[in-house]
Specification:
Elements lengths: L6 H8 L27 E3 L8 E3 L1 H16 L5 E5 L4 H25 L5 H13 L14 E8 L2 E3 L3 H14 L3 E7 L4 H4 L4 E9 H8 L8 H8 L5 H5 L6
Antiparallel strand pairs: 1-2, 3-4, 4-5, 4-7, 6-7
Helix pairs in contact: 2-5, 3-4
Length: about 240
């Protein structure tokens, strides 16, 4: 990296974009679902399925720029599969997933005459662990996006080449903001989540560049802030929990 990210750069970026992360100490404090305010959001135009979706203005700019540039190069036609979610929606997703797993696992075991409470509880616990709590989901910031591509009218997972093209398009065409793959391979012990090849996050440009250019190709946002946060004062650390 040509320019070293300074403490002042980081403090400046905190005032521009939320640096809210997943299961670590940077998650929002536990509180009533109804007391959490939502970020400023704008509608994202969906020409594929006509779905109503929202992101922050920064994230919409990033997504629409990437989609346009990749379409122009006849690369993958990327699609915003999962944008902003309210904390209420995230709460429902979390516990409906648990309920669905409980129901399906119970039916399966009854059908196979192999009922086991412990294995059902284990299955539900594992499923719950992969879905963020309402105060820990980046989707509630409006800065996270799950991306897929559209082929013959069908949503399809991105390939490694598609992801490389996304980052290349971001680097070439977006100067103000950066984009990272949020939950990298082999870092569940750091992020609390398994590898998610579809989950992208908008950041300050220099933060994203620092992460991309780190010698560890799976370097995470948690590890970045573990380096930076010890340098911040108590008042500055408080900025990471401000929900705009």
């Amino acid at each position: 990296m040509n320019k070293k990210v300074t403490l002042q750069d980081t403090i400046d970026s905190l005032s521009e974009l939320d640096i809210y992360v997943g299961k670590g100490y940077l998650s929002l404090p536990k509180c009533s679902v109804d007391t959490l305010t939502k970020p400023v959001l704008v509608l994202v135009k969906d020409n594929d399925f006509g779905e109503e979706k929202y992101l922050t203005p920064e994230a919409r700019y990033v997504f629409e720029t990437l989609q346009k540039k990749m379409d122009e190069k006849k690369q993958a036609h990327i699609y915003l599969n999962s944008p902003y979610r309210s904390v209420q929606e995230q709460f429902l997703i979390k516990y409906s997933c648990a309920g669905g797993t409980l129901l399906s696992k119970t039916k399966e075991q009854i059908k196979n005459h192999n009922f086991s409470c412990s294995s059902i509880i284990d299955a539900v616990s594992k499923r719950m662990d992969t879905v963020a709590d309402y105060n820990m989901s980046e989707h509630t910031t409006g800065l996270a996006m799950d991306l897929v591509k559209i082929e013959d009218g069908i949503k399809v997972d991105l390939t490694p080449e598609d992801r490389a093209n996304i980052f290349e398009a971001a680097n070439e065409n977006i100067k103000e903001f950066g984009l990272i793959l949020r939950y990298t391979d082999g870092k569940r012990n750091v992020t609390g989540y398994p590898y998610e090849k579809h989950h992208f996050r908008v950041l300050d440009k220099e933060q994203a560049d620092y992460i991309h250019q780190h010698k560890d190709s799976s370097y995470t946002l948690e590890e970045y802030f573990n380096e930076v946060l010890p340098l911040l004062s108590k008042e500055e650390k408080h900025l990471v929990n401000i929900y705009k």
